[in-house]
Batch of 2 targets.
Target 1
Amino acid sequence: MKKLINNPEDVVKEALQGMAEAYPELIRVDVENQLVVRKEAPVQGKVGIVSGGGSGHEPMHGGFVGKGMLDAACAGQVFTSPVPDQMYTAAKDVNGGKGVLFIVKNYTGDVMNFDLAAEMAQAEDIQVQSVVIDDDVAVQDSLYTAGRRGVGGTVLAEKICGAAAERGDSLDDVANLCRRVNENVRSMGMALTPATVPAAGKPSFELGPNEVEIGIGIHGEPGRRRMELQSADDITEMLAEPILDDLPFKNGDRVLAFVNSMGGTPYLELYIVFNKLHEILKGRGISIARSLVGPYITSLEMQGVSITLLRMDDEMEMLWDAPVYTPALKWKA
Amino acid sequence: MKKLINNPEDVVKEALQGMAEAYPELIRVDVENQLVVRKEAPVQGKVGIVSGGGSGHEPMHGGFVGKGMLDAACAGQVFTSPVPDQMYTAAKDVNGGKGVLFIVKNYTGDVMNFDLAAEMAQAEDIQVQSVVIDDDVAVQDSLYTAGRRGVGGTVLAEKICGAAAERGDSLDDVANLCRRVNENVRSMGMALTPATVPAAGKPSFELGPNEVEIGIGIHGEPGRRRMELQSADDITEMLAEPILDDLPFKNGDRVLAFVNSMGGTPYLELYIVFNKLHEILKGRGISIARSLVGPYITSLEMQGVSITLLRMDDEMEMLWDAPVYTPALKWKA
Amino acid sequence: MVLTKDVVLTWLETFARDVEENRAYLTELDGAIGDNDHGTNLDRGFRAVLNSLPDERDKPIDGVLKAVGMTLIKTVGGAAGPLYGTVFLRMASAAAGKEALSEADVGAMLAAGTKGIVDRGKAEVGDKTMLDTWAPAVDAFQEAEASGEDLLAALQAAAGAAEEGMKSTIPLVARKGRASYLGERSAGHQDPGATSSYLLFKDLLSAVEGTAG
Amino acid sequence: MVLTKDVVLTWLETFARDVEENRAYLTELDGAIGDNDHGTNLDRGFRAVLNSLPDERDKPIDGVLKAVGMTLIKTVGGAAGPLYGTVFLRMASAAAGKEALSEADVGAMLAAGTKGIVDRGKAEVGDKTMLDTWAPAVDAFQEAEASGEDLLAALQAAAGAAEEGMKSTIPLVARKGRASYLGERSAGHQDPGATSSYLLFKDLLSAVEGTAG
Ligand SMILES: Nc1ncnc2c1ncn2[C@@H]1O[C@H](COP(=O)(O)OP(=O)(O)O)[C@@H](O)[C@H]1O
Ligand SMILES: Nc1ncnc2c1ncn2[C@@H]1O[C@H](COP(=O)(O)OP(=O)(O)O)[C@@H](O)[C@H]1O
Ligand SMILES: [Mg+2]
Ligand SMILES: [Mg+2]
Ligand SMILES: [Mg+2]
Ligand SMILES: [Mg+2]
């Protein structure tokens, strides 16, 4: 295992400490409880937004804490959901009197821990709503299963809901908006190489020198299938088509196109994927209204890419463009 | 070679095309000449700033084109300097009547090609000044050698000079500021894994499963020495100390601390390095006035990190904070 | 025969040791169809339980069980944290106000834990989860108890059923938890949570045997 | 004996072929102490030269050489592009207005090329660059020419000196170009630019031999 770390057990706390030192103007960090909290939280009269999950997906979620996005992020151990105490403490820290929205990625552990936290917060009369993001079309969905995973759509939901909260929307409205984003967003990812959890010391799966895994999750969960490496164009098609067919996205739709690095894939390759994605969308009469390209929801050093498409309406577009001031997303502020 | 590409020869042009489609509001791209140009260029009454170099270092330089930073970036083949025609064409494209600054990284090829371009532009009565950035302390400097390489300091010089140009500074003033940034900035990098140039198909060097290379360049040039992997803390010291001793940085200095991923190293590890860097600086009485953490000047998918420290004065701080609106750096705009 | 607090304490200590010994095994089972952390997660939780037990042992049974549940929820994370945490909280409620538990009380306590799993995780028997251990084990216990067996015999029936339940997960296709992402590829592997749950029943039996013997 | 435009054209075509054949070899030399692209760079440039030659061949010698220089500057990039480009532009200036070149003219032309390298790259002999081929080769040519040798003999002297110059780079520690970052680690490797330059002298000789023979 070749990593720039000290002790595997200290990885999360040291990284949080580093974030605190890098962004003192944006965030404060509770290293003990593994919380990243917006500097000026609680903001009175604003819905507080809390997200969280296992570490190893940076900049998500801690990198999205700040004005116009999250009020707090709860960091679990690497690839392990945080515990309810963290979300409960975060809810107390960020509640400005208008309630708190939990944005939860759909993993059994995350969902149950956030549920417990919500119960704990409600017991103290903090209004809490939870919205579960499940945008990964690589996973078969059904009433009888754990359902789809939450992946890239989470980043977009956090930005858009953060802007809505910032302009003063009610908890119900922000939660409904979050559901609307979730209903209109779909994602799929692939890996060229696996990731290694520091505490495990070896990769979570093995891929041959010419193998790739299609439909990967963000914790190195296996995907839909394993196959020979193919051209960027072909792989982009394999990711884009299930996404497009699922919603389905239609002629005339405007989308936010998000091409995400799984951590180890450079911009040069992301832009090549974006180029092909643009062609595919054009061929279907879908226009790219906004774009996001880079490492935003990662799986440690995994090489690979995920594509997320969000069908946008005017309000989402306006909220996407609204000021944001966090370590990883910053504009107009 | 496991990469998300199509034909190795098309990598640069396809990536540029992808950038054009991702950021139509910021840039226009001349794919034929491999130029990324600020959308509204030439900006009348503003010094134009042109940089460029081999591709494979994304987001540098194309990702830094836009309001408050570069007016144009010239993309060479991967790890190969661009040709004078590109910089000459860029100079014509961005000259708003106040002349053009070339920001050049100190590599023999880059310097000579920019020199030729400057001669060509001057022959057409475009005022041009060139500033060569050479901040890499891993390379022995002397009058009789090619001197130090230009690395991370380039990103900071481009941001700060871009802000100065934006407020209307003269060409002489922007060029002098660029020299001042260069005099106050030092960098050093290391690699955990090599990078593979698509056209070459195999890594530029080999590292054993436990080996790292200290003092690496951004093209996979060998470094000062090869050694066993050590802790993040120790490696951070090995990078920070030569930097600090070189300028030298002193008790009471305020710095911009820039921890850069070589492409394949995730944020989690960058923050751990930042944490240790903070401790080292604190120990020497040096305060971190600003920070930048992420992949900004990369070497394809190379895993590794570089540290850049810039001794800041009030003016540089103000210019760093000034609005910037580019694909890779965006704030207040 | 009754279940006393001392036996409950022995049970918890035995299980904590057992999880530590089987940490790698449980994690490996999770590696095959999950994310490679079930043993690590549970061990983190039960080490915390062991640390806090000295402060809790003077409480009544329900106080001890509640403290265990709270500790697990605070330290385990993942799916196992809320699930096992809920199990112990619900068992605490069922045992509230009792100095020692009769056969019927133990049956009610275990049934309450099972209901906690279902409430929290929404799984059904056959979904390839820990419920596949708990449900048949509790059924076996209650059946034995209803037909007049004593605690030891009822727990022997429960542990046997737990083992069978655990093994029954091998051919199943997962429909809940992380393993469900694998679809058909999850068949042929024993569920890690079902396995740790079997250990819990086995250790309850051996704690009671220890006092009985 | 004079150097005609036809021989110049043959020279360029021969060198272009030679670079193509030696592309991998030149790139490998660069891999050891540089960035693994010298052969690729030069080959890209001389393929472009070959493509443009049909449009240029009716021009006088200096026109042809100037077009080559411009093409190299436009297509090669890296250090080799400006260096070889400048060499050809300077040789063009030296040959300006001449239909064919005498021994003295060729000597002046090659000397002008060498000066171009120095002006552009600021290297000295011994810095482990292409100059280590050019400087002794031009000296040898001019010495031979001054002592009355004809073009063929003078070029034989030049090519021999070029080969020695190329080999002289092996033990040197680089002080210019990318190889200088290696410091002492650059010793023991032959410089790629010095190697391609030797080919250029060898091919000039063989082009003249072809007409002489
Ligand atoms: N919905 C559920 N209901 C009951 N048990 C579940 C459910 N989801 C998961 N489990 C149990 O949790 C176990 C996994 O625990 P663990 O690996 O610690 O958590 P995670 O999956 O979050 O990494 C599974 O083996 C399964 O027995
Ligand atoms: N300053 C210089 N003066 C003369 N020749 C040089 C100089 N710098 C580099 N060279 C020559 O250029 C060659 C490298 O060319 P090339 O590999 O094409 O360019 P780059 O180094 O930019 O990749 C070296 O082998 C050397 O002969
Ligand atoms: Mg887990
Ligand atoms: Mg090169
Ligand atoms: Mg698990
Ligand atoms: Mg080279």
Note: The longest strand of chain A covers residues 48-55.
Target 2
Amino acid sequence: MITPEQHIRLYKEMLRIRCAEAALAERYKQQEMRTPTHFGLGQEAVPVGVCAALTKEDVAYSHHRSHNHYLAKGGSVYRLAAELFGRKTGCSGGRGGSVHLTDRESGFIASSAILAECVAMATGSALSFAMDASDRIAVAFFGDAVAEEGAFYECLGYAALKKLPVLFVCENNGYATESPLSIRQPEGASIHGRVASFQIPTRNIDGNDVAEVYLTALEVVDEMRRKPGPVFMECRTYRWLEHVGPFFDHELKRTYRTKEEVEEWMAHCPVKRHGAYLLENGHATGEQLSTWETETRKSIEDDIERAYQDPWPDVQTLMDKVY
Amino acid sequence: MITPEQHIRLYKEMLRIRCAEAALAERYKQQEMRTPTHFGLGQEAVPVGVCAALTKEDVAYSHHRSHNHYLAKGGSVYRLAAELFGRKTGCSGGRGGSVHLTDRESGFIASSAILAECVAMATGSALSFAMDASDRIAVAFFGDAVAEEGAFYECLGYAALKKLPVLFVCENNGYATESPLSIRQPEGASIHGRVASFQIPTRNIDGNDVAEVYLTALEVVDEMRRKPGPVFMECRTYRWLEHVGPFFDHELKRTYRTKEEVEEWMAHCPVKRHGAYLLENGHATGEQLSTWETETRKSIEDDIERAYQDPWPDVQTLMDKVY
Amino acid sequence: MRIIKYNEAISEATVEAMTRDPSIFLTGHAAAYPSGLFGTTARAAETFPGRVFDCPSMENAFAGIAVGAAAMGKRPVFVLPRADFMFLAFDNLLNLACKWHYMYDGNAGRVPIVIRAAVGKGWGQGATHSQCPHAPLAHFPGLTVALPSTPADAKGLLLNAYTNNHPVIFFEHRSLFGTEGEVPEQMDPIPFGKARIAREGTDLTIVATSLMTLEATIAADELAKQGISIEVIDPRTVRPLDEETILASVAKTGRLIVADCSWEMCGFSSEVAGLIAEKGFHSLKAPVRRIALANCPAPVSLPLETAFYPKASTLAQAALRLLNKDEQDLAGIDRVDYFKGPY
Amino acid sequence: MRIIKYNEAISEATVEAMTRDPSIFLTGHAAAYPSGLFGTTARAAETFPGRVFDCPSMENAFAGIAVGAAAMGKRPVFVLPRADFMFLAFDNLLNLACKWHYMYDGNAGRVPIVIRAAVGKGWGQGATHSQCPHAPLAHFPGLTVALPSTPADAKGLLLNAYTNNHPVIFFEHRSLFGTEGEVPEQMDPIPFGKARIAREGTDLTIVATSLMTLEATIAADELAKQGISIEVIDPRTVRPLDEETILASVAKTGRLIVADCSWEMCGFSSEVAGLIAEKGFHSLKAPVRRIALANCPAPVSLPLETAFYPKASTLAQAALRLLNKDEQDLAGIDRVDYFKGPY
Ligand SMILES: Cc1ncc(C[n+]2csc(CCOP(=O)(O)OP(=O)(O)O)c2C)c(N)n1
Ligand SMILES: Cc1ncc(C[n+]2csc(CCOP(=O)(O)OP(=O)(O)O)c2C)c(N)n1
Ligand SMILES: [Mg+2]
Ligand SMILES: [Mg+2]
């Protein structure tokens, strides 16, 4: 069961990520963050629910759409913003850009831009944990397109063979850039069904319901710590903005999906939904919700502005860390 | 149903391949075929049963252990032997060696040494057939290790998505070089089970029973011609000789499998077994069987000797076919 | 003559070739969308809906699928929005496609496949979305590797790729898609292995690939004002390489700069420098100068990225030095990057 | 001093390093079997059964798994029975491992992984089982690429690889596993980027990689009989490259042959020729000569294979020509291939 405090924590964390991504997307339009960026608006419940079930010792990896995961695992908005601005205070010193984030202290080891690399990395970290008989867990966050990449299946086979403590979290948002799932993957062959054929336990859940994500994650993480082995979670969700960039698709007249479809999913906004849950169950008042939002926005604006004011890396450092 | 004539044809074809491989393995020991060679002794029923269900217009691809497939699809012993001797009359002009065979006329397009390449090539040929609305079929012959390679799953997904007329034939002989299946693939996750999760029809059959292979292949090929789409056949079989080279493992004191295991499988020899079936059912007499064997051996010895006498390629041709 | 853009030229070549040859089909991620490879596939997609289609993310297998389709008489064109994804396809390209004709002694038929990929910098693409692996690929016999730098070359080389009988890798530079140039309505294919002399000159030769040809031309224009005559050679294809044209130019000028859009080590700039050391040694009046990316992964941050990429001023400066002239402040000649996010 | 074989030296380095550092583990196809990588993993497998284990055929993912394990403090060693399989792992090697330290600005930790692979000819290995892709890999900043040519170098360089903090690719030549040489019982790691002068000389420099160092030494021995003094340099690592030692040698001899065990184009022989054209131009008395594989895939058939690979006589002949001496019949100096099938 989730305590009221936990419910509030989940809500506040989603709010922080939502406000951060919204504010960053707004700033992005000024063309001063020179790094192709895949915003995560609409998909907050998965990273928040999963990361709430992890400890700092557990590690996470992510793909190109990685801000949510970086933040939910414990990364700071300030260092993320600085990274997008290319500042030397960025989490990767401004060198990596939006798709190459890291925050080792909080256990967010790396995001990387090439599909399925994060799956392999998490599997490798889990191999390390298994060899040390540690009870740490490695998590990979990735999208539905990864189920088209061979490396994904290589990792499934390996993790199942070696009983590695790796949690595969697939955010199935139905699209890879502009391509819907139906033109990319065989009819009737669900991703979790394919994974299950490797004898890996799977869950197929509503990825816009943070409570469901959290409870599921708690359960599987607990299982994994007691009896190591991979678990796969497929979380149905939806991205609001264009694949890469800060706009809604219809603002740019892209037609691969309808405005109606987007709006329908926005109506199932994970943040609003959980806010409503807090209100209904008396865990929070409307006033509290709006105060939290105001405070969060303010603090995020401060972080972003502070990052913006930070210095560029010195050109003399171009060859630093070359060995 | 299989007619007596067909039964005899299946038997004779297995006999041809068995005798060819046995004779080549014997010659191989003289160290004059300078090409690493994976003999197919013991696995004759699968290629013979499958190829008997195909037409010349259908195409086949194979992996490193490819002699059986090349021969069953219609390749000549003479040109195979010449290839192993490195002669210019070899099916690949002596350039390819044992793992790079071709015989376009009979529809054996290519074997290649890198795992899973043959699966992709067959899928590609099937794509071509599908685009032309032709009723041709492409077949890939490969081993159990291919189920560890990512490219295999990429092809499964693509073939299922595009409903391509490709027949995947996996000869599961339980080993990849010296590694048994159990240390390579997850417990309980059968290969055909994994394939089925892609919504591909699968068959799991006794690969040492040529009649079962043939009937299954006839059935699926017929289905595929009427309604294009991939089919997967897993055929349980066993290789008699070492992974690469002409010896029995125990002759070289290799211990990764026991002599007993090999002998048990040899007792289920597909050729002997089908010979016994012919006798039992009055399709052939013992005398016939031994005449066929004598004739086959003779003709194969002639082919091999003729190949041996053939000339090397001229050194001046080293740069021919370079563009 | 008619002026069109690089991406229009590519689109045009594609539509023309597909009209002539029904065996050509084109696929790749987003290939069927208006955004497909910088708009170069959109017209083909409209015109030949059944022959232009999307492809799941399966770079490895698809390269092998292309080989299998080509072996049956198709001409597959596989497009990649970033060349960096091509590493996943290296096995089927290097162990299969490029060896096919030789390894089976011509008996297994031909595999005419074309892989088109966008390369290069722009808007902080960073370490994994900007690479141009033409040199590693050109190392392998059996591959043709083309990098057109003008709209006309893009069209002519692509027409040749689409009718060639063997695998071709075709690198289209991000910063060139919007550039304009003269392209005849009717164009013949441009043969592989025939360099283009982008600018004639007598004092120094610059051999430059892809975008670097543009940078070299800017540098040459600037130096021309000072009476320095630079010859700019665009090899068009790295493999086959037009050694003759390069050697003839150096025989005339005696001085060589090689400017490449990838790294130096075992790269194209070393290849040409090595060529001259072996076959043009007696023409050389001064050391060859190799100009390539800084010897580190591509950083995103603007000042680092700016320092990472060589440009017109880098080339002009190097030319001055080779000619024993004083260095000058030439930063003013560098093009402003017109790229806008988020791509 | 003690004489051991190349494969014994490799085995010894592995066991020593694993004894000292419990974070090292070793895996790859057949790694746990006596046949593992030409017997070089057997003793480690016996000594550390939990840390040497087999790996399914999944070259792509395992390279990424190695990165993820390394990021947690392990030192994975991934062995490949043929370097040709490594193309499948190029994505994780080139887009991830080699960029890791730079791209995350050092903040994501380190990824000390070692990939060991057998390369080279023998017994008709053919086009897809004989390649040595050191040049394509060395093109990318962030990778160390080593090719030891003697037992002592194999041990010393491997000891360094096993303690290095970044990804290392280690190519072991099939034709060298059985060769013998002096190897001290106690050995220090040999630093990367420090060439070995295999033989001192004054008339001509041969820079040679891997097996070609052996061929160069045979050629040098033969020519010494005729009073010709050849210096043979083994760079040991292609990246980092010891430019200094090579330049110093050419400064002394004025003549250079580069002999490589892969192809010429965008390969190591061009790299060194280019280096000299840029930084050693004024020392050169004659054109550089690049000697590499014939410009085609490796054929299997014996006479073709024999013609395909350069050998001692090829080098000796080239040296004579560079020194303006008459060609001679030197085929007698070439080593007889001791390889036996089926491997
Ligand atoms: C190997 C590889 N191929 C192609 C791409 C280009 N690419 C970037 S994002 C993307 C779609 C990813 O879709 P999905 O995994 O569903 O994640 P989402 O963007 O929907 O969050 C593609 C194809 C890539 N980054 N890596
Ligand atoms: C990509 C790749 N990795 C590794 C190898 C080395 N190798 C050659 S055969 C083989 C085992 C193949 O086993 P299987 O597929 O079961 O076929 P079998 O030999 O049993 O017929 C391996 C690992 C290879 N050829 N290609
Ligand atoms: Mg998606
Ligand atoms: Mg097997």
Note: Chain B is about 45% helix and 10% strand.
